[in-house]
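Why do we care about 3D structure at all? Because function follows from shape, and shape follows, mostly, from sequence. That is the central idea of this module. The next example makes it concrete: a single protein chain, its amino acid sequence, and then its structure expressed as tokens.
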Amino acid sequence: MTHSPPFWPPRAILLVGLATACSASPGTQPQIAALDACQTVLTTTSGGAITDDAGNTWTLTPAGEVDENGAAVPGGAGTAQLTLDASGTLWGQDVHSGGWYAWRNGTWNGPSGSPVGTHVCGDCTCQIVLTPASGGSIKDDAGNTWTLSPTGEVDENGAAVPGGAGTAQLTLDA
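And the structure:
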């Protein structure tokens, strides 16, 4: 369901139940397993979340800790970037070595080369989706900073947005 109150800028849209993956083709449905799919790449400053095929929500804290469904992942400290590739494999980049490690069967495997494809958010129609647990922010075209508090309150530039309470997810329409 999309809710866009008339007092909000047209690009600020609340979405409930949005998948965090996207496709490289504008106007198509999100595709997690598509070849050359657009990837969301989280950093320690990006905020946002990635949802895998099993419905688990992955985040990267400002301290570089990988969390799954709000709980720290063993061996996930010291992560610079986090992404989900087109096959559905979660990858974390070690902050010190720069190597990439795949999360498989409860352990990090690697190092390996970069799993980041040619279509990274910002290059296509990807969307960062904030949840009450994800932290982070989204900047709109006018330079306003949007956040979603742990209690589900939408803030614009640090001020509560009228009608923004009880929000489950927040994203910026492409």
